[in-house]
Amino acid sequence: MNIETERKYKLSVKRHDEIVQKLAELGAAFDKEVFEVNYQHRGGEMDERGATLRLRKIGDFTVLTYKEKIKTDDSAKHKIEYETTVGDVDATERIIERLGYRLTAVYEKRRKYWRLDDVEVVMDELPFGLYMEIEGTVEAIEAAESNLGLKELEREPRGYPRLTIKYGKTIDGVAVAKFERTAAV
Fold it and tell me: Residue 176: exposed, middle, or buried by beta-carbon count in 10 A (0-12, 13-18, 19+)?
């Protein structure tokens, strides 16, 4: 079983820039930058277990992810996580719907990945704000928080689907958060 352990933080533009600078000062290795479109599905027994299915499209690459919350006593989020590559997104979407799950949220995200010691640090830009996630063991996350000077930074307990429901638009019963597109001249 794969367990994902992470903490998420809401950032101001100023705080975002300070953390990016601090990552560079600490010698964090920048890995990549991607643009994602995420499709969140819920329903049935998954709702009872606090689970969800997500299709994540990154260019021509798509991943299907199953996540299920695990209750713990610490302040990090712990989730069972299984992922697999998907070859045909439309067929996978139809399979998910035929299994009785419904599309609940669609959100876009610009994500930058860094490696800092034993954690992965990602800086996310969504249509409704800037966020950072640190993933690793609880101990490694706490060490990274200390090294990055995050003591006063408030943690964000909600996932992006819930934030999309709060800050996005509802279209045909689906919460949507997409970046504004400018017309080509």
Answer: middle
Residues 6+ apart with CB under 8 A from 106: 37, 38, 39, 40, 164, 174, 175, 176, 177, 178
Number of domains forming the structure of the chain: 1
Mean pLDDT per block of 10 residues along the chain (185 residues) reads: 90 96 97 96 91 94 94 85 92 93 97 97 98 96 94 88 96 96 63
Rounded-to-integer distance, Cα 55 and Cα 103, Å: 10
Q: How many CB atoms lie within 10 A of CB 29?
A: 9
Domain assignment present for 23: yes
Given phi > 0 = left and psi -120 to 50 = alpha, else beta, which region is 27? left
CATH of the domain at 8: 2.40.320.10
Provide the domain limits for residue 24: 3-177
Predicted structure pTM score: 0.91
Q: Which residues are CB-neighbours of 66 under 8 A, at least 6 positions away?
A: 51, 52, 53, 80, 81, 82, 83
d(CA 42, CA 50): 9
Residues 42 and 72: their CA atoms lie apart, in Å, by: 22
Contact of 114 with 120, CB cutoff 8 Å: yes
At residue 129, the 3 state secondary structure works out as: strand
